[in-house]
Specification:
By secondary structure, the protein is an all-alpha fold. Helix content is 74%, strand content 0%.
């Protein structure tokens, strides 16, 4: 059912979502996460759609597809940064480069290193929060609503720092 070269597809072998739920998830993601429109395209009621959005298997599938979409969208950017870093290393090591060029390249490398450390820290915090959320959900004490789960997946950085 999906289009755009299966832009949001993931390996569904281990998915707990049913084929009908996959059809809804496809429509949900491809239509800007508008529940009513996705329900209509998947030929289910809005009530069913909202019920499905609360199911852990459906939430997991949506999360996986969002991550796959982000990875695909950021791949060219990541490659560009990688090439820029390699070029900066080349400039730092180039004896023919001016001191100013070497200094600017070194500054760029230092900035990229700081960004990388910050990104790794954020990824670790998000992973911890997702584990906490999953444990709370399994215990019946956590968030099960997809809207709340989305907020917990992408909290402001200040909230992440406060909670850890």
């Amino acid at each position: 059912m999906m289009t755009e070269d299966n832009f949001f597809s993931t390996d569904n072998f281990f998915s707990t979502a049913t084929p009908k739920q996959h059809a809804f998830i496809d429509a949900y993601i491809l239509n800007g996460e508008k529940v009513g429109l996705a329900a209509k395209k998947a030929r289910i009621s809005e009530k069913t759609a909202f019920t499905w959005l609360r199911l852990p298997g459906v939430q997991d599938e949506i999360r996986q597809r969002r991550l796959a979409a982000l990875e695909k969208a950021f791949a060219p950017l990541a490659r560009g940064v990688e090439l820029a870093i390699l070029k900066a290393i080349e400039i730092v090591d180039d004896p023919c480069a001016t001191k100013n060029q070497q200094l600017r390249a070194a500054e760029f490398l230092a900035e990229q290193g700081a960004h990388l450390r910050e990104s790794e820290g954020n990824a670790l915090r998000i992973t911890k929060l997702e584990k906490m959320l999953m444990m709370q959900s399994q215990e019946g004490t956590g968030y099960t609503d997809i809207e709340e789960v989305t907020l917990w997946q992408n909290p402001p950085l200040a909230q992440i720092s406060e909670q850890l």
